[in-house]
Amino acid sequence: MKGNPFKKIVGGHIEFEVGQTHDNVLFKGIVERLCHSRGFNLKKKTKNDNNGLTYECKDEGWPWRLYASNILNNVTMQVKTYNKNHECHKVYRSEEARSKWISSKFETIVKHNPDIKCGVIADLLRHRFNITIYAQRL
Questions:
Q1: Nearest Cα to 68, choosing from 57, 83, 82?
Q2: Roughly how many angstroms between the first and final C-alpha of the chain, as a whole number?
Q3: Region for residue 25 given its phi and psi (left: phi exceeds 0; alpha: psi -120 to 50; beta: otherwise)
Q4: Rounded distance between C-alpha atoms, residue 68 and residue 66, angstroms
Q5: SS (H, E, C) the chain
Q6: Which residues of 65-81 are buried (b: 16+ CB within 10 A; e: fewer)?
Q7: Exposure class string for 117-130: b at 16+ Cβ within 10 A, else e
Q8: Are 22 and 6 in contact (CB under 8 A)?
Q9: Residue-wise pLDDT tens digits, 31-59
Q10: What is the Cα–Cα distance from 89 to 79, expressed in whole angstroms?
Q11: pLDDT of res. 33
């Protein structure tokens, strides 16, 4: 297999490059983590077919774009094009922070403290990830 495998850096920066390969199942999660850390939302209508995925910044006029396609029987994604130029204003109310992602980040806290208030989790989201969300997502 040709390509540069993605190396997970604990607590590190996420950086894509052309030719980089990713596990197909984990790829969307990596893109979401990048959006959370950089503070931007993705366009709702991204190309998502059997062969590849295209992600673009939601704000018009910004060239940030990532396209990856399947290789090796839909097990691995490879970054084909990547324009990393992204300078729009940071968004603190993330549309990418969905309930599934939030629950994965706070699962152990809720298991050990089932009476935790939604406001505490919202404060932790602001403190740890610099993200503000609507209360309905909690």
A1: 82
A2: 42
A3: alpha
A4: 7
A5: CCCEECCCCCCCCCCCCCCEEEEHHHHHHHHHHHHHHHCCCECCCCCECCCEEEEEECCCCCCCEEEEEEECCCCEEEEEEEECCCCCCCCCECCCCCHHHHHHHHHHHHHHCCCCCHHHHHHHHHHHHCCECCHHHC
A6: bbbbbbbeeeebbbbee
A7: eeeebbeebeeebe
A8: yes
A9: 877 877 777 777 755 666 677 888 888 77
A10: 25
A11: 77
Q: Is the pLDDT of residue 125 over 70?
A: yes
Whether the model pTM is above 0.90: no
Residue 109: both structure tokens together:
């806290």
Residue 77 and residue 53 in contact, taking contact as beta carbons nearer than 8 Å: yes
* Alpha carbons 134 and 138: distance in angstroms, whole number: 8
Measured distance CA(53)–CA(67) in Å, rounded: 6
Encode pLDDT of 16-38 as tens digits: 889 998 888 788 888 877 877 77
Which residue has tokens 């406001």? 119
